[in-house]
From TrEMBL:
<keyword id="KW-0547">Nucleotide-binding</keyword>
<keyword id="KW-0378">Hydrolase</keyword>
<dbReference type="GO" id="GO:0005829">
    <property type="term" value="C:cytosol"/>
</dbReference>
<dbReference type="GO" id="GO:0005524">
    <property type="term" value="F:ATP binding"/>
</dbReference>
<dbReference type="GO" id="GO:0003676">
    <property type="term" value="F:nucleic acid binding"/>
</dbReference>
<dbReference type="InterPro" id="IPR011545">
    <property type="entry name" value="DEAD/DEAH_box_helicase_dom"/>
</dbReference>
<keyword id="KW-0347">Helicase</keyword>
<protein>
    <recommendedName>
        <fullName>DEAD/DEAH box helicase</fullName>
    </recommendedName>
</protein>
<dbReference type="InterPro" id="IPR014014">
    <property type="entry name" value="RNA_helicase_DEAD_Q_motif"/>
</dbReference>
<feature type="compositionally biased region" description="Basic residues">
    <location>
        <begin position="388"/>
        <end position="405"/>
    </location>
</feature>
<dbReference type="InterPro" id="IPR027417">
    <property type="entry name" value="P-loop_NTPase"/>
</dbReference>
<dbReference type="Pfam" id="PF00271">
    <property type="entry name" value="Helicase_C"/>
</dbReference>
<feature type="short sequence motif" description="Q motif">
    <location>
        <begin position="1"/>
        <end position="29"/>
    </location>
</feature>
<dbReference type="InterPro" id="IPR044742">
    <property type="entry name" value="DEAD/DEAH_RhlB"/>
</dbReference>
<comment type="similarity">
    <text>Belongs to the DEAD box helicase family.</text>
</comment>
<feature type="compositionally biased region" description="Basic and acidic residues">
    <location>
        <begin position="374"/>
        <end position="387"/>
    </location>
</feature>
<feature type="domain" description="Helicase C-terminal">
    <location>
        <begin position="222"/>
        <end position="381"/>
    </location>
</feature>
Length: 454
């Protein structure tokens, strides 16, 4: 796409021509239209002029259209001086014909120049959080006309523990404004930063993570939530017994790994149950086909691994089973949201010994704790059979031990007696139990030498 294809003012177009900007990059094609529409956004981007242009171009366009250019309109926060100065230079070049002024407030710039730029309220301020906050606090300065805030390299900001400085700077921005956050990657701290400073943001470049910026849905109060404590080494047995008790359900079963889905798939097929599986290693074509088989009703059970529930576009499921309990309460909420509302619908978790801490965390987080469900009768019967077998084995073992003891009391004892060696006489040992050697006889090595030579 060429810049002529998007609506930009003649002044900004002239600035782009001066620096040989003719075509939008892939990132700019995604970002600039969204920014011009006024969206807050979290944007995935690597450092470089393409990223800088994606927010500078629409911001300068907004500034050039303003009738009153008094006051700072664009505030950019970036973690290092080099990036701040690069943004400053690009703003100056692109905004030259629009007479847009910019200043960089960073660790390498003269302090008096920084104060003068802040007080004169140039249209664009770019700064490192530490120096910018120091200058603003020293001048007791407030931003009253900002229309756009850009938090650049949010992941680096978080790594440098700059969240408090960012917060204190943004407290000084009193005007309503659009917020753009750029990051190479997203972690919990970046998500928190985005939720705190944006309104209904869109994600650009992170589309592979559905639900990343939205609050997880609340669990329906009418939904039946339960869990079954699974006896040791009886998880598949418990699952199959539970499925037999709920034969009509259209069911999704979540496991922790592809290996788990493969194992369950073989078990279900062996019992003539129609099932299919989704996991991270499937091609898009196979994934779509298997998903369609489930949504069309061709199969009754969908086994899922390595796929967040937020990615599953379903609304006709009567039961969700956590074969492995999720350790993230939000993931549990998204799974519960797949189930149709009503008391006939349910989400059930199979809780083994190692899952108990996870189910306890869920209970604390959800507010509405799942209820413990009774163990299926079939599992109880197998447990009883297992106990009986153990008792038989233990009795058989005792008899074997008794017979072994009896054999030791008979012939075995004679043989041992016959094989016993004669005990040595202490009389012949120097310094033995029956007294010392005669006085004229030396003991030890010296006595032995004398005997040899006598």
């Amino acid at each position: 796409m060429k810049f002529e294809e998007i609506t930009l003012s003649p002044n900004i177009m002239s600035g782009l021509q001066d620096i040989n900007y003719t075509e939008l990059t892939e990132l700019q094609e995604k970002v600039i239209p969204a920014v011009l529409e006024g969206n807050d956004a979290l944007i995935k981007a690597e450092p470089g002029s393409s990223k800088i242009g994606s927010f500078v171009i629409p911001a300068l366009e907004q500034i050039d259209k303003r009738e009153d250019k008094d006051g700072t309109s664009l505030l950019v926060l970036t973690p290092n001086p080099e990036e701040s100065q690069e943004i400053d230079e690009l703003v100056w070049a692109m905004g030259y014909h629009a007479q847009i002024e910019c200043a960089s407030i960073d660790m390498d710039t003269d302090l008096e120049e920084q104060k003068e730029a802040i007080q004169s309220e140039v249209e664009v301020i770019v700064g490192n959080p530490g120096p910018l906050l120091d200058v603003c606090q020293d001048l007791k300065f407030i931003f009253r006309h900002v229309e756009m805030v850009v938090i650049d390299a949010a992941d680096e900001m978080v790594a440098l523990n700059l969240q408090d400085k960012i917060q204190n700077i943004l407290k000084r921005v009193l005007s309503d404004h659009q917020t753009l956050i750029y990051s190479k990657e997203v972690n919990d701290d970046v998500k928190e930063l985005t939720k705190k400073y944006t309104k209904d943001p869109i994600a650009i470049g992170f589309e592979d993570k559905p639900g990343m910026l939205t609050e997880p849905p609340k669990v329906d109060q009418n939904l039946t939530q339960g869990y079954i404590y699974v006896p040791n080494r009886m998880k598949i047995t418990t699952l199959m017994a539970h499925l037999e008790n709920t034969p009509q359900d259209n069911c999704i079963i979540f496991t922790a790994s592809k290996r788990g889905t493969d194992r369950l798939y073989r078990t279900l097929r062996k019992n003539d149950m129609k099932a299919t599986s989704l996991h991270g290693k499937l091609s898009d074509e196979k994934r779509s086909q298997r998903f369609a088989n489930f949504t069309n009703g061709d199969v009754q059970y969908l086994l899922v691994a390595d796929t967040p529930a937020a990615e599953l576009d379903l609304d006709r499921v009567t039961q969700v089973i956590n074969y492995d309990v999720p350790n993230d309460p939000d993931e549990y909420r998204y799974r519960a949201n797949l189930v149709g509302s009503g008391t006939a619908s349910r989400i059930v978790s199979l809780v083994s010994k190692q899952d108990r801490s996870d189910i306890n965390e869920l209970e604390n987080s959800l507010g509405q704790a799942p209820k413990e469900l009774p163990l299926p009768d079939k599992v109880k019967q197998k447990l009883e059979e297992r106990k009986k077998q153990k008792k038989k084995k233990s009795r058989g073992g005792k008899r074997d031990n008794r017979s072994k003891r009896g054999s030791n009391n008979g012939r075995g004892k004679k043989k041992n007696d016959d094989l016993q060696l004669p005990r040595p006489s202490y009389d012949k040992l120097s310094g033995g139990k029956k007294g010392d050697a005669p006085k004229d006889q030396k003991s030890g090595v010296i006595g032995l030498i004398k005997k040899l030579f006598s």
